[in-house]
Design goal:
Blueprint (H helix, E strand, L loop, with lengths): L2 E6 L7 H15 L3 E6 L5 H5 L6 H12 L2 E9 L2 E2 L1 H9 L9 E8 L7 H12 L4 E2 L3 E4 L3 E3 L5 E3 L1 H27 L1
Parallel strand pairs: 1-2, 1-3, 3-5, 5-6, 5-7
Antiparallel strand pairs: 3-4, 8-9
Length: about 180
């Protein structure tokens, strides 16, 4: 199937956003996709903030984006926008790094007041980076994500169903993108 890069833009090591992404990665893997997780917080801060395009970790992240057929972009919402950590990586990628790729934007936050952050803050950036197809994104409230003592994640039933549908639509869109790429 497709290669999917799963990007977490959360700066926290105990992030619900990252844990939710890893939970969804398992669904994509079960559907036959090769999923590569990347927690942006693990990249060197000096390279991100200093715009060190030649740093090995940044060139590796850029190569992962280039090799992916699809990208899941997950971010917590801070002050009605995606995280600065995510922004720092996106700024270091080539202008059209997402050209020809299917992208799934996901966000988490503490209040429904931030639900439009995907459409008004994140989607325009993803589009400007040339994404071939940005599927319907999803905003998940923090309270709907429970982390168990073992680090496992459970999602409230209504949210789990909606997220499952969004991930499945992304998976189907990945299949279409691969067919178009092979025909081109």
């Amino acid at each position: 199937m497709a290669t999917v890069l799963s990007l977490s833009g959360s700066p926290s090591a105990t992030s619900r956003t990252a844990r939710l992404l890893r939970h969804l990665d398992a669904r994509l893997t079960a559907q036959g996709h090769d999923v590569i997780p990347l927690d942006i917080r693990t990249l060197p801060a000096a390279a991100l903030l200093g715009a060190d395009f030649s740093h090995p970790a940044i060139t590796r992240a850029t190569a992962l984006v280039e090799q992916a057929d699809g990208i899941v972009v997950g971010t917590p919402v801070y002050k009605a926008a995606y995280s600065g950590l995510l922004k720092s990586l996106l700024d270091l990628l080539p202008q059209y790094a997402f050209a020809g790729k299917t992208v799934l934007p996901l966000a988490t936050g503490g209040t429904t007041a931030h639900v439009l952050a995907i459409d008004y803050a994140l989607r325009p950036v993803l589009s400007s980076m040339g994404a071939a197809h940005i599927v319907q994104g999803w905003f998940t409230l923090d309270k709907d994500i429970t982390v168990g003592p073992d680090g496992g994640v459970s999602v409230s039933p209504g949210t789990a169903e909606a997220l499952g549908q969004v991930v499945d639509q992304f998976s189907v869109a990945l299949g279409r993108t691969a067919v178009f790429a092979a025909a081109g």
